[in-house]
Amino acid sequence: MNALESDADSPPVLCHAFIAGFPRSGTTLLENILAAHPKVSTLAEKSTLADAAPHYLSNESGLKRFETLSPADTRDARRNYWRRVRQFGADPDGKVFVDENPLNTLWLALIAKLFPGAKVIFAVRDPRDVVFSCFRRSLQMSLPTYEFLTLERAAQFYAGTMRLAEIYRNTLGLEWTDIRHESLVANFEAETARICGFLGLAYDSAMRDFGERARTRAIPTASAPQIVRGLNSDGVGQWRHYSSELQPVLPILAPWVESFGYPPD
Predict the structure, then answer these.
(1) Strands of 40-44's sheet, edge to edge?
(2) How far is CA 76 from CA 63, 100, 212, 220, 221, in A?
(3) What is the pTM of this model?
(4) Does an H or E element contain 191, and which?
(5) What percent of the chain has pLDDT over 90?
(6) Strands 40-44 and 96-100: what pairing?
(7) What's 230's DSSP letter?
(8) Superfamily, domain 15-259
(9) 2: pLDDT strictly greater than 90
């Protein structure tokens, strides 16, 4: 397998992938499963694009700069990205490197510009479970998580992010696969083997023991208690217990429930 990145400022990675989706959609679970593979290096929810994303994607003047991004600017942004990866403690050399952040979805246009050969692993979970979990859980406050203070704002943020993801899926030309949380829980080995195939890897049985390994890792998300317990289906269909409370936002989520193939009730 050949290294993906070829310029002098990029490490010799076997493959470069980004886990994206939405908070509480299963991205942390995917990262921990992949981290258990001996040929994979992962980085969980770190601000690897903190320099480039605000500079290019936060306002109109930035978008104009992004439209005219020069090869030199691209190289600088890529160099800064890999510098941050190493500062955060990851060693991507000679491995499949996976950058996990649910809100990587928002930066996929930049990712495609900097890393046109990168792959996208997109975490999908029933939108009703996702939005309810975002509202229910106590998450570290930030500009994105501020939207989770009410159900309506959380649902609108989810719907807007999924619309953006749909546009990016159809226009950016990135190699992309969806991983449905419910399918991963129900058919673990088949789904993890499929992910490995997508990344150019052979399945490794060590991935089954991700929960044990997770107990020795710092997991910087609210998913940590679930991850260390290993695979379980406790979060599947949780929204049904609160369907009355969710009624006001169900119409906002209905297009995505249908699009992702979940039953309407």
Answers:
(1) 40-44, 96-100, 15-20, 119-124, 175-180
(2) 17, 22, 39, 28, 30
(3) 0.90
(4) helix 188-198
(5) 72
(6) parallel
(7) -
(8) P-loop containing nucleotide triphosphate hydrolases (3.40.50.300)
(9) no
